[in-house]
From TrEMBL:
Pfam families: DUF1289. This is DUF1289 domain-containing protein. InterPro entries: DUF1289 (IPR010710). PANTHER family: DUF1289 DOMAIN-CONTAINING PROTEIN.
């Protein structure tokens, strides 16, 4: 039985940051978005881990800017 692939983190709020080519909805880079369907389970897990790191960094920066 094949392992189930991780689901896409897409939240249908696509908006690319022009400086980083990162979606501020799901926090994937443009390359990660376009390569998602070809990625195997391990690659998808790596992408999801990077997304989580980017989300935390984004939230930290934007919270600091609001102060």
């Amino acid at each position: 039985m094949a392992a189930e692939l991780p689901a896409s983190p897409c939240v249908r709020e696509c908006c690319l940051d022009g400086r980083t080519d990162t979606c501020v909805g799901c926090f994937r880079t443009l390359d990660e978005i376009t390569g998602w369907h070809a990625a195997d389970a391990a690659e998808r897990e790596q992408i999801l881990a990077r997304c989580a790191e980017r989300r935390v960094a984004y939230q930290t920066i934007h919270q600091a800017l609001r102060r």
